[in-house]
């Protein structure tokens, strides 16, 4: 009876340690996922790296070899640089990745340091969650107001184009980038969806191309109201979701998608990941 309890206890300990190694491996390899590795390969790397972390306790006498895990990590990183050559094209990314994985092994192999790191990470996570929820609750995601500070700072530099004489970006009551010169009465709308090239954060409201289009339509006597649904870094996947949320579309409305730049960026920098994740 005692032997069976002891075996069960050891089995539970083995499972707990293995699960901890997998979680630690997942965290350590997140840069691989962000660099563009396919999900299937990423999960394979997580399992392999987890085995490396557990190597000293799983290999019997081999586990007594000094720096066994660290040596295996070096071999593991060499394999990554071969199989993920296109994803890890930058030398800086490769160096940071190797150092990050070595640091992960060192921390994992030293329980005292690991506890400090885990506790601090948990505290940071717990503090960031309410902050994130607060920002999402009080900020309209369509207004893209966060770009005002960035662009005002950039344009206040001595080597920049200097500050504009008008407020840089404003948003309408429905949270969209303001389109100027909209008619008081109209028979239809023109809804323009796009990324930063549609949001036009680098110019005042009256110089965005939706505002210019609005003035052109006004000059032609077209009773159309132009609305700017642009947002920096947006993709077609993201904008389609926004379009589906527009419930007051009418038969006379025109929808324009000026999109593709960010999809191209996704194709180069986030291989094999759907645009919706970005």
Question: Would you give an account of this structure?
Answer:
This protein has eleven helices and three strands; from the N terminus they run αααααααβααβαβα. With 278 residues, it is mainly alpha-helical. Helix 1 packs across helix 3, helix 3 runs antiparallel to helix 4 and helix 4 runs antiparallel to helix 5. The C terminus is likely disordered.
How many strands, which pairing sense, and closed or not: the largest β-sheet?
3 strands, parallel
Query: What is the distance, rounded to the nearest whole angstrom, between the alpha carbons of the first and last residues?
Result: 54 Å
- Total DSSP E strands: 3
Q: How much helix, percentage-wise, in residues?
A: 55-70%
Shape: elongated
Residue runs with pLDDT of under 50 for 5 or more positions: 141-164, 271-278
- What is the C-alpha radius of gyration, as a whole number of Å? 27 Å
**Count of discrete alpha- or pi-helical segments spanning 4 or more residues:** 11
Q: Could you say which structural class the secondary elements and strand pairing correspond to? A: mainly alpha
Mean pLDDT: 75
Question: Strand percentage, roughly?
Answer: 5-15%
What is the N-to-C succession of helices and strands? Answer: HHHHHHHEHHEHEH
Strands in their spatial order, largest beta sheet: 2-1-3
């Amino acid at each position: 009876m005692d032997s069976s309890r002891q075996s069960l206890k050891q089995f539970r300990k083995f499972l707990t340690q293995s699960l901890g190694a997998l979680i630690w491996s997942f965290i350590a390899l997140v840069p691989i996922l962000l660099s563009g590795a396919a999900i299937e390969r990423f999960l394979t790397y997580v399992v392999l790296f987890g085995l490396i972390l557990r190597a000293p306790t799983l290999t019997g006498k081999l586990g007594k070899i000094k720096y066994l895990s660290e040596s295996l990590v070096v071999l593991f990183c060499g394999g990554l640089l071969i199989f993920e050559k296109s994803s890890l094209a930058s030398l800086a990314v490769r160096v940071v990745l190797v150092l990050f994985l070595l640091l992960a092994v060192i921390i994992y192999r030293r329980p005292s340091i690991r506890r400090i790191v885990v506790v601090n990470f948990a505290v940071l996570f717990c503090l960031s969650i309410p902050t994130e929820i607060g920002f999402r609750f009080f900020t309209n995601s369509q207004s893209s107001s966060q770009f005002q500070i960035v662009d005002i700072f950039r344009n206040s530099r001595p080597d920049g184009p200097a500050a504009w004489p008008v407020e840089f970006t404003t948003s309408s009551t429905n949270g969209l980038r303001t389109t100027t010169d909209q008619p008081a009465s109209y028979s239809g709308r023109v809804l323009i969806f796009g990324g930063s090239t549609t949001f036009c954060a680098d110019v005042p409201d009256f110089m965005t191309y939706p505002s210019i289009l609005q003035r052109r339509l006004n000059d032609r006597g077209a009773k159309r109201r132009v609305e700017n649904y642009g947002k920096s870094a947006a993709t077609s996947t993201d904008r389609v979701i926004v379009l589906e949320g527009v419930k007051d579309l009418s038969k006379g409305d025109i929808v324009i998608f000026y999109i593709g730049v960010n999809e191209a960026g996704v194709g180069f920098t986030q291989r094999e990941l759907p645009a919706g994740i970005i």
